[in-house]
Amino acid sequence: MLDSLVTSKTRIKLLLKFFSHSNSGYLRSLAKDFDESTNSVRVELNRLTEAGLLVTEEEGKTKVYKANQNHPFFTEIKNMVSKFLGLDDLMERIVKRMGEVEKAYIVGDYAQGIDSGTVQMVLVGKNLDKDYLDFIRDKTYEKVNRKVEVEILEKDPETISGILVYGK
To answer: Is pLDDT above 50 for 80?
Structure first.
């Protein structure tokens, strides 16, 4: 789907990372998260920055990248990424009905830009409605033809390698 429009796997991962939520990142952490060389990530970060899709900020000696919300195509790219993930509607419903969701991550293949047919999610929060989760899993399969696997954690271990799609 998205890989037929964008030929670079690294660029797809970066677009998913930055345009799925208000994510930011720096070169070394992105390379580690994507299991890619820093050089291949740097090349794509430079291309996306030159195109105006990403902006940078200096935090000490570290250059931090994030999506340029002022870019004319920001909304369109964000919508395209959401549709690729198949989670825009799902996330809204889950967050509203599940209880005290603090964060939601997409992990696994979808976080890497691969449409494997299974969406893996990690929800962080307390007292989450697990019965509703079972219901929404079935509905999601009917609606977007994707299997959804969800892991629930009460506390964010802050080592999750994936795309933050809800929370801060």
So the answer is: yes
The Cα 94–Cα 96 span in angstroms is 6
- Distances from the Cα of 85 to the Cα of 5, 43, 47, 57, angstroms: 15, 24, 23, 27
Residue 1: its pLDDT value, please? 46
Query: 162: which strand partners?
Result: none
Q: Which DSSP category does 116 fall into? A: -
Per-residue pLDDT, 64: 95
Using an 8 Å Cβ cutoff, are 104 and 121 in contact? yes
What is the average pLDDT across 77-90? 73
Pairing between β-strand 147-153 and β-strand 163-166 as defined by DSSP bridges: unpaired
Q: Rounded to an integer, what distance in angstroms lies between the CA atom of residue 63 and that of residue 10?
A: 18
Question: How does pLDDT run across 27-40, given as a tens digit for each residue?
Answer: 999 998 888 899 99
Name the one residue in this structure whose structure tokens are 């219901």.
Answer: 135
Q: Which CATH number fits domain 2-78: 2.40.30.10, 1.10.10.10, 3.40.605.10, 3.40.50.300?
A: 1.10.10.10
Indicate the pairing of strand 118-126 with strand 100-107: antiparallel
Q: Per CATH, the architecture of 86-166 is what? A: 2-Layer Sandwich (3.30)
